[in-house]
Automatic annotation (TrEMBL):
Pfam families membership: 2OG-FeII_Oxy, DIOX_N
Superkingdom in the source lineage: Bacteria
Domain Fe2OG dioxygenase: 175-275
Protein family membership: Belongs to the iron/ascorbate-dependent oxidoreductase family.
InterPro entries according to UniProt: DIOX_N, IPNS-like_FE2OG_OXY, IPNS-like_sf, Oxoglu/Fe-dep_dioxygenase_dom
GO molecular function: metal ion binding; oxidoreductase activity
Gene3D superfamilies for this protein: B-lactam Antibiotic, Isopenicillin N Synthase, Chain (2.60.120.330)
Protein name, UniProt field: 2-oxobutyrate oxidase
Organism: Paludibacterium paludis
Coiled coil feature spans: none
Length: 335
């Protein structure tokens, strides 16, 4: 385990244009290819909004169990709401964190039995009655993070010498959004130190806001590296859809969160930006010198990747939330 910092990029260099923009795109490509993780500053999200979101997370998780259970995820065929500690699995092992999941507010899609089961991912969020202002704040947060990821996605397109809008069709008017507010309680790590087990994210891009308690670790060719909190920044990482689209030129990197020591609590917000559920992931036509370095997407026979986005997202959700799968998707064969 080393404590070497990850690369740090400033998004305002991209929007400034000219030489600053060219240097940004160069650094973006290097960071995404070599590590798949970087810090982002200059993103335009005000510090007081970041703090308000963390404060909302602290208030939500401090509610009595009964108020959190009122919005528990197992109520929702759309995988939204509260998951208690140990209620989520990563690679079959329970994670030591509690979390609140939000996606885009949507209408339920009426569908016929046997039709694409991922259509059931669309639907409303659940909100705790005890925190009446949470909905507006969190949806605003989700929209602002969407804006940052859309800008970044255009930067990725340019860095790979594509048309800036090459991902537009797969993203649509509003991309698939998924946000988690997370609490990692400390515990005696002789029991297990799995806050969240090692995994890759499944969307295009992830933005993580962490508080000042370390815990997020990234697998690099130097071993596991701690993403030491950098105040005001987001940690950005590449998800499997970008790896697929770039034929493995960009890397979806394994990462994990280790449980804080007993008596210490860590809070974070993780936002996953994906493609439209009804889209297929585009396969980019890379120029020869980049294509030669594209290794093909890494494939895990135990966790196949699908180009059809909805199928991929539903697979991940069913594996992570077995109680929701049993309650609402019992008729499906395991994926
Ligand atoms: O809490 C964090 O810092 C990261 C969480 C994460 O990797 C995830 O939920 O996919
Ligand atoms: Fe992750």
């Amino acid at each position: 385990m080393t404590d070497h910092p990850l690369p740090l990029l400033n998004l305002s260099d991209f929007t400034a244009g000219g030489e600053r923009c060219r240097a940004f795109l160069h650094a973006l490509r290097a960071a995404s290819r070599d590590v798949g993780f970087f810090y982002l500053t200059g993103h335009g999200i005000p510090g007081d909004l970041q703090e308000a979101v963390m404060e909302t997370a602290r208030s939500f998780f401090a509610l009595p169990d009964q108020a959190k259970e009122e919005v528990r995820m197992v109520n929702s065929p759309h995988f939204r709401g509260y998951t208690r500690i140990g209620g989520e699995l990563t690679r079959g092992q329970a994670d030591w964190r509690e979390q609140f999941d939000v996606m885009r507010e949507a209408q339920v899609v009426r569908c016929h039995y046997g039709e694409a089961p991922w259509l059931r991912l669309y639907g409303p969020n659940q909100w705790p009655s005890a925190l009446p202002r949470m909905r507006e704040l969190v949806l605003d947060w989700q929209d602002r993070l969407t804006g940052v990821t859309l800008t970044l996605l255009r930067a990725f397109a340019l860095a790979l010498e594509q048309d800036a809008g090459v991902f537009d069709e797969s993203v649509g008017e509003v991309p698939f959004q998924h946000l988690k507010l997370i609490r990692y309680p400390g515990r005696d790590t002789t029991l297990s130190d799995q806050g969240v087990g090692e995994h890759k994210d499944s969307g295009y891009l992830t933005l993580v806001l962490q508080d000042d308690t370390p815990g997020l670790e990234v697998l690099t060719d130097r071993g596991w590296v701690l993403a030491t909190p950098v105040p005001g920044s987001f940690v950005v990482n590449i998800g499997e859809l970008l790896e697929l689209a770039s034929n493995g030129y960009l890397k979806a990197t394994l990462h994990r969160v280790v449980t804080p020591p007993a008596g210490v609590t860590r809070y974070s917000s993780a936002f996953f930006m994906g493609a439209r559920l009804d889209a297929d992931v585009p396969l980019l036509d890379l120029p020869g010198y980049l294509a030669r370095e594209a290794k093909g997407p890494s494939s895990d026979p135990l966790n196949p990747l699908f180009h059809q986005v909805g199928r991929n997202v539903l697979k991940g959700r069913l594996r992570s939330h077995v109680d929701v799968a049993n309650a609402h998707y019992g008729e499906l064969e395991p994926l």
